[in-house]
Amino acid sequence: MGNRAPLPGEFALIRKYFAPLAAGFSGALDLEDDACTYAPPAGHDLVLTADALVEDRHYLRSDPADLVARKMLRVNLSDLAAKGAKPVGYLMTTALGPDIDEAWIAKFSAGLAADQQEYGLSLMGGDTVATPGPTTLSLTALGIVPSGRALRRRGARPGDRLFVSGTIGDGILGLKVLKGQLFDLGASHRDALADRYHLPQPRLSLGAALLAGGRVTAAMDVSDGLVADAGHISESSHCGLIIHADRVPLSAGAEEALAGDLDLLPVLLSGGDDYELLFTAGAGFAAPDSVTEIGEVITGSGVRVLDRDGAEISMRSAGWQHF
Questions:
Q1: Which of 80, 178, 194, 239 could form a disulfide with 85 if both were Cys (CB 3.0 to 4.6 A apart)?
Q2: pLDDT band for position 2 (50/70/90)?
Q3: How far apart are CA 56 and CA 63, in angstroms?
Q4: What CATH number is attached to the domain comprising 242?
Q5: Strand ranges inside 97-245, DSSP E
Q6: Predicted TM-score of the model (pTM)
């Protein structure tokens, strides 16, 4: 990356780039103390979730810093969405490698500022350290939900239907595009897929609506892959799930990629990084336009993926694993 000027000292960096991100949250105490304070509204539970992004494992070193920041925030907001929670704020730890300079930090903090405004939350605190590498970023998001109402993976029952929001497979295809693959796709499709990888769309409004509707029995977001995450619901709910592959919603780019290589289907179903909501619902649930019914809950265990003829599709891998 060439010669770079050293970063300012820890406290100067915090004052210049991170303290402004905390200005909207009084409990952050201007990031001058070692902890923040927060009193949740009466009748609400706190929902907390944490994710880490490691350079060249969860994002590419070449990814723009503002997009790295926004993805880090959004993958956590997706976890809140899966609980039906409203975001409040976040704690952040940045372990910065030797290739990070002040221009990178400026762009990184600008990305966070943009998404804070979009999603209505503030930085609450955190820690900033140096590391010999790779750069490692960790964020803990905090949300609130009416007491005892948070959606869970546990609760699906035989006879429930299985639904997913948005489209599936775009995340893994976007990563392939950024790695210089899928050149047979049109430029507009490649750009759209790369954007889906860089900037997940946390389904916060949908999560809140699912909670309010009272018909959802189990829910989570699709981060590790559709089949793997369906497996988490299956295991937690002690039931089986059927996924009908021909019903799984695909974007135009994914459909074009699949038409050119039918072997991509298991990849789309297991690739992860989609950050859509996967959930089960009982009788009387009316699916909104942004949601597609893709299967059902049965007695038994595990996840079966069927083609349009009812034959089981072999999955070499159900999804992403961190180890």
A1: 80
A2: very low
A3: 10
A4: 3.90.650.10
A5: 122-130, 136-146, 161-165, 216-221, 240-244
A6: 0.93
